[in-house]
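Q: Give me the 3D complex with flavin mononucleotide.
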Amino acid sequence: MSKLFTPYQIKNLELKNRVVMAPMCMFSADTNGHANDWHFTHYAARAVGGVGLIILEATAVEARGRISEHDLGIWKEEQVEGLKKIVDLCKAHGSKVGIQLGHAGRKSEAMSEPNIGPSAIAYSDDYRVPVEMTKEDIKNVAEAFKEAARRADLAGFDTIELHGAHGYLINQFLSPLTNKRTDEYGGNAENRSRFLKEILQAIKTVWPEEKPVILRVSAEEYGEEGNHDVDVANMIKDLKEEGLDLINVSSGGVINVVPRAYPGYQVKFAETIKQITGLPVMAGGLISSPSMAEEIVQNERADFIFLGRELLRNPYWCLQATKELRDEITWPKQYERAKLK
Ligand SMILES: Cc1cc2nc3c(=O)[nH]c(=O)nc-3n(C[C@H](O)[C@H](O)[C@H](O)COP(=O)(O)O)c2cc1C
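A: Here is the predicted complex, encoded as structure tokens.
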């Protein structure tokens, strides 16, 4: 028996295994942010393949928070219907479904909208200089996250993930590299995490208590003056009572630096965050080997494994992984004759 294919419960969310599909932008929505046939097929295929938790790609809480003009959106009631269809399709095949709520801030390349950030500093020469957010803007964006969470519940999502990683807006506030504010939203760690705290407080007023909230973080920013795993862990620890149930541990994207990546390169950050915060964590990054995934959960270095590109290559990874791990899971009955012995 493997541990990777054992269930796990967080609040009311019962997951059949520890395999999570990482959020991955498809940049395939129309310019109104509506889901379409691509999304229905793409997500349902991973559910057929046995993934425990599917987390939908970064979905914009505001039109100006899109990474591109073709992001999925959740800033309007009309967007709920398509999202609900994805949820229903995935659940019909036994997966649980989350959605990553995102705001790109200074990294928005949706040129039809102005872009905003904690401070007027561009990501690189190829990006626009964002307009520094006023306190009114901060309040409005927290409200947009709240409304997005309300719509996510309407669509039937089992969990929401706040995109606090990869140098997008929440991360821009958390990082001393991008947040140069001199008011109560900048300076020390408590001030830099105030925006996230206010988002969590706003969400709590609409998101059901029994459904978990996930936070994705960049636990290492790959800049000496930036946040490192212990800094991020301490910020999470201070916020966990505001309603954080699970941490999805990633890294990078805050500054224009490419880290040296190898299978499992982010697992050590997940371990630190698990240890310091006491919260369950997801670990991943270039993982494709079932045995490696099993080692990480078996040794309690993380509670879940997220797979990104491997699941793009192989939506049926779970069905095949059980062979290597000498385990058995239920195959869709239509595929049973293909079961690997
Ligand atoms: C096509 C693609 C789109 C991505 N979009 C997102 C996203 O929307 N949100 C996010 O947090 N990470 C995003 N990522 C990062 C993945 O979630 C994941 O962390 C990364 O690919 C490393 O895992 P992997 O090596 O298993 O692919 C994306 C990655 C890829 C390849």
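A quick observation: The chain has a mean pLDDT of 98.
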